[in-house]
Specification:
The structure holds two protein chains of two kinds.
Chain A (H helix, E strand, L loop, with lengths): L1 H47 L2 H12 E6 L6 E2 L5 E13 L7 H8 L7 H8 L6 E7 L1 H10 L4 E10 L7 H4 L11 H5 L1 H4 L4 E7 L5 E8 L7 E3 L3 H18 L3 E7 L6 E7 L18 H4 L9 H10 L8 E4 L2 E4 L2 E4 L7 E4 H6 L3 H11 L1 H10 L28 H4 L10 H12 L3 E2 L5 E4 L10 E2 L3 H14 L17 E10 L6 E13 L6 E8 L8 H19 L5
Parallel strand pairs in A: 2-8
Antiparallel strand pairs in A: 1-6, 2-3, 3-4, 3-5, 6-7, 8-16, 9-10, 9-20, 11-14, 12-13, 15-17, 18-19, 19-20
Helix pairs in contact in A: 3-4, 9-18, 11-13, 11-14, 11-17
Chain B lengths: L1 H5 L6 H6 L5 H22 L9 H20 L4 H5 L2 H18 L1 E3 L2 E7 L2 E3 L1 H20 L5 H21 L3 H17 L4 H24 L7 H8 L10 H16 L10 H4 L11 H34 L3 H25 L17 H29 L1
The chains are: A alpha+beta, B mainly alpha.
């Protein structure tokens, strides 16, 4: 009995324990189900309600769109020389936080990225995600870097702008920035055509930004090649002649244009000092202007063409019309002298031009009258842009008729109190060389395969009048004229010297510094080339256009004529 | 009856006998999840090792095969025999985790491994099964003999010794698993509910002190990265720490997987390495990215079945010792599943606990399969006892 009771109690106890146990087991099961259910619900929430936002985040993380740089169009000369061209290079960038051994890495790559070890190390400092080491190393250096396989150093194909002729035409061609955007010169003005259309690449990347694979590509469209009318040989010769003149005369600057009067094509357009396009650091404020277009000067005697040609065309004078010329000419309070003393003479129009007589030119202008003089100044393009296809052109300064004073007739006809550009002078003399047509100069021969239309030019004086002026200008370039230094053996040459006092920009008064110039054309018997040369502030004794600029004209023109196979 | 069955002769009799009472639900789910785990590890890691796309896959496959062999060995285990060596086992456990602390190899600021030639062992993983067994033996031997409070203190002390060593390695996650195992064994043993309430309150207070109060006072019990991991789940949005990043990336992976997933080869967050630790801690997010909420949900359901079967086996267990061992193992699996998936979906702190049967890892995979083997063995014995009782 007792045993049975004990057994019963034991069972009861065990049953009680079992009940507790099974209750706790039930709690565990329900708890498990609840927790897992909660997690499932949470996962479901993320995967449905938040799915859109999180998917977008995922896409943003592992996909990226980058621009594919279009190869920039080349700038080439009319004789096929590349003046500016894109070269395939390799850009070297670093991800500093991935570079653990900064010093060691710097030591190994410094020479390949063309930096000092210290500078390389400095750029690798910090934990930034991106730093440029070199925008373009050549393929050999790139191969070396690739072989090193350093962590955190990235190589990317890139284009680098190269200027094979370096200094040649530097201001005209201009530069691009590190991203291939034109900054100055033709690189800037033609940027829209040169740059092409960037492509787009859609790619998958890993968290460190490494490209895993390309998803799709839209190929870039290469920029167009711009062909200039420039002849590279004539351009180079022009620059070397100008440099020699600059050095010999210790001048501030020297500029020139070589142009075909027939169609206005510019064969050379140069200014020294220039700079090396491949070394942007050589650029100075003095060297960056394309002066024949952007700078004006007081032309002096070369401007006498306007009064003489106008008077001939208007029939006021002929080549042989005689003028009595006193030693000096006084009007109101001003007295005009010749640049060299001369006794009273009687000279023909031709002789006046030949000897560059100030008083004679004023007499012709007086005969022509103020209104017609102004008309011819405007007809020969002064005071207005030539319309050359190059940026930054200025109009020059011509005094409006209503601002003329009583004595203006003493200085305007002889090129004082006006400001012109070399391009304007070249165009005006071109009109004499081509039989009376004002042909706007141009620089762009072709863009891609498109040939832009260039205006044929407006006839401003008759061919007959042009011929009369031409004969007189040929006399200038003779043993009897001021331009005899400009003679080219075997060729007929027409031209005119010019010497002008400069005006101090501060005081507005003439000072003892000069602009020496010469503009002429050859052969004179038919349209060949017109060359205008200007030397700013020669300070080595002589400063006359006939002595400083005319020899430069001769050298440039002779080279150009022979190079172009133009017969005398 | 049993003897009759035992004496049956003929082809296939032995295998049939050996498999008698086997919990097919549990075995089937474990095999399915393990196989799926190997597949996911393979798909997730193909581009992780540049020279060898199958680096993780071949290793995980090997771990799983070896683990399954161990699992079947466990089906012949006799726990009663082993219980005589309980203190030896406990000494081995403490010594091995202690050895790791002293001479283990260092990896990522944690020291968790002992290198034995080419094999890297993580004793704290195997320790989870050992501690479950040791605690079960201790509790069974003293349950009737000593006061509940003393027993709880004793179990707590026995647990904390290896747990603190593991924590110092530092491996907070595994240390917490030990505590969970101890709690489950005490709970199933029927210890007064007040013990759990007091312990819970102490843990909450301690966590608050360690994570927020003491660091503010300039005293760091945990390393800064551990605090980050534990607290970043509270607000991961503006968190720039690595843990916040991991949590954010986990959510992005799950969210971008949507309802039906992007497929094993379209899981860009995983394959392109935007989801860190994708073969270990964040493998659930990988599953969700590849197979969507559907795949993640099915995986959660599979874990529920596994835990449910463990609980069923716990009820069937023929002896108190076996019941408590099952409780410890079930707690281990459940705790790891909870913490890991909770971490993946952003509602539990990041503690670096792998997902059982899925995450890459040798010691971890072996331990879990051995544990499942023990469950199956006890389940078979339970069925046999049930059958005997019915007879």
């Amino acid at each position: 009995m007792r045993r049975a009771r004990d057994k019963g109690r034991a069972r009861a106890r065990r049953d009680a324990a079992d009940r507790v146990g099974s209750r706790r087991v039930r709690y565990l099961t329900i708890g498990t189900l609840a927790v897992l259910g909660l997690f499932g619900a949470r996962a479901g929430w993320i995967a449905t309600v938040q799915a859109g936002e999180l998917s977008a985040k995922a896409t943003a993380q592992h996909e990226r769109t980058i621009d594919l740089q279009a190869p920039r169009g080349a700038i080439v000369s009319s004789d096929g020389r590349e003046l500016a061209v894109d070269k395939h290079v390799v850009a070297v960038t670093a991800t500093p936080y991935l570079v653990t051994d900064k010093r060691g890495t710097a030591e190994r790559i410094a020479s390949a990225v063309e930096l000092s070890v210290d500078e390389t190390e400095r750029r690798l400092q910090g934990d930034g995600g991106y730093v440029m080491l070199n925008t373009g190393v050549d393929q050999q250096r790139a191969a070396y870097l690739k072989k090193l396989g350093l962590s955190g150093i990235t190589l990317t194909d890139a284009q680098k702008r190269l200027y094979p002729l370096g200094m040649v035409g530097s201001q005209m061609i201009g530069m691009t920035d590190d991203w291939g955007v034109g900054l100055t010169g033709l690189e800037k003005s033609m940027d829209g055509l040169l740059k092409g259309t960037a492509g787009q690449r859609h790619e998958a990347r890993d968290p460190k930004g490494k490209t895993l694979r390309i998803l799709d590509d839209r190929e870039p469209i290469a920029g167009k090649t711009v062909t200039l009318t420039i002849n590279s040989a004539i351009q180079q010769k022009t620059e070397s002649v100008l440099q020699a003149v600059l050095d010999a005369n210790n001048a501030k600057a020297a500029s020139a244009i070589v142009m075909r009067p027939e169609d206005g094509a510019i064969l050379a357009m140069a200014t020294v000092p220039g700079y090396d396009l491949n070394k942007p650091e050589t650029l100075t404020a003095d060297a960056e202007r394309m002066r024949p277009i952007t700078d004006t000067y007081e032309p002096g005697s070369t401007f006498k063409l306007v009064a003489v040609a106008g008077a001939i065309e208007d029939g006021v004078v002929t080549r042989d019309t005689m003028f009595d010329l006193p030693e000096t000419l006084t009007l109101y309070d001003r007295t005009l002298k010749e640049s060299h003393y001369r006794p009273s003479v009687s000279w023909s129009t031709q002789e006046i031009l030949q000897n560059s007589s100030n008083i004679g030119t004023v007499k012709i202008a007086q005969k022509l009258g103020t209104t017609q003089l102004q008309h011819w100044i405007q007809q020969f393009g002064f005071g207005a842009k030539t319309g050359i296809d190059y940026p930054g052109e200025v109009s020059g300064i011509v005094l409006p008729t209503d601002e003329w004073s009583g004595t203006s007739i003493l200085n305007i006809p002889i090129g004082q109190g006006v400001a012109v550009t070399i391009a304007q002078i070249a165009e005006a003399y071109g009109a004499i060389a081509n039989g009376g047509r004002m042909v706007p100069p141009h620089l762009i021969k072709r863009v891609g395969n498109t040939v832009p239309t260039h205006p044929r030019g407006q006839q401003v004086i008759s061919a007959k009048s042009a011929e009369q002026v031409n004969i007189m200008l040929q006399k200038v370039v003779s043993d009897d004229g001021t331009g005899n230094e400009a003679k080219i053996p075997g060729y007929t040459v027409g031209g005119k010297t010019g010497t002008a006092n400069k005006i101090d920009p501060k005081t507005g008064k003439y000072i003892q510094s000069y602009v020496a110039s010469f503009v002429g054309y050859a052969p004179a018997t038919r349209p060949g080339i017109v060359v205008a040369v200007m030397v700013d502030e020669p300070t080595n004794g002589s400063y006359y256009g006939g002595q400083v600029a005319a020899p430069a004209f001769e050298k440039i023109a002779q080279f150009a004529l022979q190079h172009l196979h133009i017969a005398p | 009856m049993t003897t009759l069955t035992g004496e049956t002769h003929g082809v296939g009799a032995r295998p049939r006998q050996a498999a008698a009472g086997l919990d097919w639900w549990l075995l089937g789910m474990v095999l399915a999840v393990s196989g799926f785990g190997v597949f996911v590890v393979r798909a997730a890691t193909e581009s992780d090792v540049a020279s060898n796309s199958g680096f993780y896959f071949t290793r995980q496959l090997a771990f799983t095969v070896v683990g399954l062999v161990c699992l079947f060995f466990m089906l012949r285990l006799n726990l009663d025999d082993l219980s005589r060596y309980v203190w030896t086992i406990y000494a081995i456990l403490v010594a091995s985790v202690g050895a790791v602390l002293v001479l283990g190899a260092s990896a990522r600021g944690s020291t968790r491994w002992i290198e034995l030639g080419p094999v890297r062992l993580q004793p704290s993983e195997f320790g989870k099964v050992l501690i479950a067994f040791v605690l079960a033996v201790v509790v069974v031997e003293r349950l009737k003999a000593i006061e509940p409070a003393r027993l709880s203190w004793m179990v707590l002390g026995l647990t904390m010794l290896p747990a603190v060593i593991v924590f110092l390695q530092p491996d907070l996650g595994t240390a917490l698993v030990y505590v969970a195992i101890a709690a489950a064994i005490l709970w199933v043993a029927g210890q007064p509910i007040t013990h759990f309430i007091v312990a819970g309150a102490v843990i909450v207070a301690a966590a608050g002190m360690i994570l927020y109060v003491l660091p503010a006072a300039g005293l760091d019990v945990l390393r800064p990265y551990q605090v980050d991991r534990l607290t970043s789940f509270v607000d991961s949005g503006g968190d720039r720490t690595q843990s916040g990043y991991q949590l954010e990336q986990s959510k992005v992976a799950i969210g971008s997987g949507g309802a039906f997933g992007k497929g094993p080869s379209g899981a860009t967050q995983t394959i392109n390495d935007f989801l860190p630790e994708h073969h270990t801690d964040f493998i659930f997010a990988v599953v969700a990215e590849m197979f969507g909420f559907l795949g993640g949900g099915l995986l959660i359901a599979a874990y529920f079945i596994i835990i449910w079967r463990a609980i069923v086996i716990m009820r069937l267990a023929p002896t108190e010792l076996e019941r408590l061992v099952v409780a410890g193992i079930a707690a281990m699996l459940a705790f790891e599943v909870f913490v890991n998936i909770g971490m993946n979906v952003g509602i539990m702190p990041i503690t670096g606990i792998p997902l059982p049967l899925m995450s890459y890892g040798g010691s971890h995979t072996l331990t879990n399969l051995v544990a499942v083997g023990v469950l199956l063995r006890i389940g078979m014995r339970g069925r046999a006892a049930q059958a005997a009782g019915a007879a």
